[in-house]
């Protein structure tokens, strides 16, 4: 059967089979989500991600061998475009920090409500950054060296508007609607922002905006 391009293709990476089975059971009843594969550790997750090219990866942080953070770093080095949603427990909150630095689109706790999980998958697939305030503060507190990124004055007024909306978790489509622009124009602004500030992704852009007082 051919893949349905309208469905969000999800890869599950967790070293506990019972967790993967539970996630698959729930997600497979969602009309717009398709579980395309599984990985039992970070190494297998990388292989499957390269083979299947999913839209979203649900990635556990703590796994034997190659953990979630290292797997994420390697996927980014390979240029894999999948949006990675980290799955963690509340007691492991600080492990989220290196994952976000490595390019994760956000995180969810392992006890998340199933409907909220489906919503989180749709959200990161749409381009949102799921960055809760307390984790943003941890990230900023751990910045022990001055940033080498650009300064606020290097951005145009419009780029500052776009950056503020990125930090607010808006997707390109929502930014386009808010500013009455085309999505293509928004994408150009986002690319310019990342280039001017020497940032690699939207998560870093959101943190940059927090660090420079551009969001409340």
Helices and strands in order:
Blueprint: E1 8-13, H1 17-27, E2 33-39, H2 42-52, E3 56-60, H3 68-77, E4 83-88, H4 96-101, E5 106-109, H5 114-125, H6 133-141, H7 157-167, H8 172-179, H9 183-197, H10 202-211
Parallel strand pairs: 1-2, 1-3, 3-4, 4-5
Helix pairs in contact: 2-3, 7-9, 7-10, 8-9
Low-confidence stretches: 144-148
User: For the residues shown, what is the average pLDDT?
Assistant: 83
Strand content: 5-15%
Globally, the shape reads globular
Number of E-type strands = 5
| SSE arrangement, N to C | EHEHEHEHEHHHHHH
Q: What is the gyration radius calculated from CA atoms?
A: 17 Å
Read across the widest sheet, the strand sequence of neighbours is: 2-1-3-4-5
Structural class: alpha/beta
Q: What proportion of the residues is helical, as a percent range?
A: 40-55%
Number of DSSP helices? 10
How far apart lie the N and C ends? Answer: 48 Å
What composes the largest sheet?
5 strands, parallel
Description:
This protein is an alpha/beta fold. It contains 10 helices and 5 strands. It has a 5-stranded parallel beta sheet with strand order 2-1-3-4-5, with helices on both faces. The longest helix is centred in the last third of the chain and has 15 residues, at 183-197. The radius of gyration is 17 Å and the shape is globular.
